[in-house]
Batch of 2 targets.
Target 1
Amino acid sequence: MAPPTLLALRPALSGGEGRNPFEVLFGHVLPHPIQRDDILGSAFLGHHGDGEPLRLFGLTVWNIQAYQILAVLLLFLAFRGVAGAVRSGGGGGFQRVMAGWAGWLREEVVFQYMDRHHGQRLLPLFLFLFFFIFVQNALGLVPFGATATASAYTNAGLATVTFLCMILGGMLVQGPLTFWRNLIPHGLPAWLVPLMFVVELIGLCVKPFALTVRLFANMTGGHLVLLSFMGLIFYFGTNMGTGAGLGITPVGVGMSVFIMIIEGFVALLQAYIFTLLSVIFVGMCLHPDH
């Protein structure tokens, strides 16, 4: 999670405006617009201000969008030469590691919940989801970084892609009418069919919502816990004196390091869970009898 700048914390530490340091710290979890006069600082260094926001095609550009682009560029670099290494059986150590991760996702995640024909076609999408989410999660652990997946808008966009694959993929594979007919369990009394259709339709729409909330809550919650322990140092130092702040520092720093270690594991786990659930949801729509 991006640490607060000293400039941002100065009012809280001096007892002026923004006296509560938690407000300053928690504010760094929220996305902020990139400023025209400080593009690099407001995009990647956590600088906040009231300057003119950068606009592209009339739309405000936010710092999390810069980190999404950075994540895509890092993925291009990470997978450069991996396909050739898989085909030839050679390549460097890092390329073998990335190929191993891709092979594990293919065999143990995608092919486990989807037949190989459709799984092979959708494999690039699921690989992208996993690594894209993981890199975005990991960037939030870098000093002055930001976590794009701590924004519900980012997660909703990814979940919408999964939802479209569920609906469009199901209708293409089963046929438009068969897909909607298979939402309802067969053999139901006629009077129960309308009610069950509504229930199943709600269940279908809840799936992308669950993907969005799960990733958003886990990434945001972890950052808030980490910033809470950091905030204890500034809170005690501001309201109870420098001695109290120094006294609580070992506890705050120790717990912050502990949470950072957990956050590193959560960054990988949440990417896996999002991808796994996406595979399961899409597979259920492609093959309702399974």
Target 2
Amino acid sequence: MELRVLKYFLAVVNAGTVTKAARVLHVTQPTLSRQLMDLEDELGQKLFVRSNHTITLTQEGILFRRRAEEIMEMVNKTEAEFHSMGASVTGDIYLGCGETNAMKLIAELFNDLHKEYPGVHFHMYSGNAEDVLDRLDKGTLDFGVIIQPVNITKYNSINLPYREVWGLAMRKDNPLAKNKFITKEDLARVPILCSRQLIKTHNALNPYIQWLGQDWNSINVVATYNLIFNAALMVEAGLGCAVAIDKLINTTSVSNLCFRPFKPKLESALNVVWKKDQVFSSAAKLFIAKMQEKFTGQEKNL
């Protein structure tokens, strides 16, 4: 299987028709159609459902698209790493992160690094810990910013000098908004939206499950989420209250939402992780050195 064919396949998927993709690729339509049929023959699977004007991916085609995108990401990343080799510090740093106010620390570090080394560029991917670690394992990311609880024993890591505070995001007209803190008993009184990562009960070290103790079965979880933005919209619509991290939703005077921390306090540590066997570019190595210099032994209040 040639990379050129993968590019052809993705171009057709993105264009929606073979005709449009052929124009973009500067090849003839019969040539492109032949390449796609040869690809299907090679894989032994039908990738497209063809009609007069459009094409639609089969289930096998959807899977192949995901794999083709991952392969091309790795190819582009590898090419960029080798092009950046030389005496000067240049190159690309790929970082995945969840939603966290601690990204201000990473942003400040990026800014300082770019000022000193203008040839260094940054690429960020947002997702939950599972998404980020999957991309890290596949090599499409260099680093991941992880909010605990997550098992990171197979990675190198550095602790970020910041801890996230958990609590409940709710509408300001919710009766619980009158409280300064939210207790376990309060959670049992309202419908709850909760992060899927946070409620994985098979994780014995999960601090949320430990915090709830035997009261877990009394919680009415009406929805789960992986990123807070859409969950906040559901809260605003009245679906329930969201277990969330402080400072991630708009709670200003123009917002209908507010946040109340848990009592007893529930906090999560954060780590920047990377693969132990990773061979890094000069830019990525410098990023690690700058993190160790900036973050080791410090505590930030953002």
